[in-house]
Amino acid sequence: MLKRKKDGGFTLIELMIVIAVIGILAVVLVPKMGGVKDSAKYAGVTTNAKSVEAYVVANIDRWAKNSTDAEDVIEGQFTTGPNKLENPLDGTAIIFATPIDDAAAKGVVAVTGAASPAGGITITGYGSSTTDILYQNTVRRN
After folding, report:
1. Which residues of the chain are modeled with pLDDT < 70?
2. Which of 12, 19, 125, 139 is most deeply packed, by most CB within 10 A?
């Protein structure tokens, strides 16, 4: 009687089952991964806004004492050099602008106001439009 020697490899049916399971997992997970990527981009806008806010908090008293135009200083600090922040939604370098319309607002961090005793500097991080505010805070002098 002849005995058949087993190779120890996988059968065709086992390989097909593994491929089918991987395909089902891919169909379920791939659409969800797109949402994670968008969430990370929006979190980047909030992070940029909070970075600008920390800079404003550290310097607002000095700017008020010297009557410095804070908006120009902030824009110069974060649009060039090693502290340059980029718009995470579209990759553009300039993120400080006052949004005029929804198209201009996408991913922008807007800095408005003055370091005067009566006023404050408002930092706003926009998502996809001017109504989609991801982060907003006003920093006032002590």
Report:
1. 1-7, 93-95, 97-100, 116-118
2. 125
Residue 41 to residue 35: CA distance in whole angstroms: 10
- Per DSSP, the chain holds a count of helices (H) and strands (E) of 3, 3
> CA torsion 17→23→29→35, rounded to 10°?
180
Q: Which of 16, 26, 2, 41 is nearest to 127 (CA)?
A: 41
d(CA 108, CA 129): 9
The full set of domain ranges for the chain reads 12-140
Q: How far apart are CA 142 and CA 129, in angstroms?
A: 32
pTM of the predicted structure, to 2 decimals: 0.67
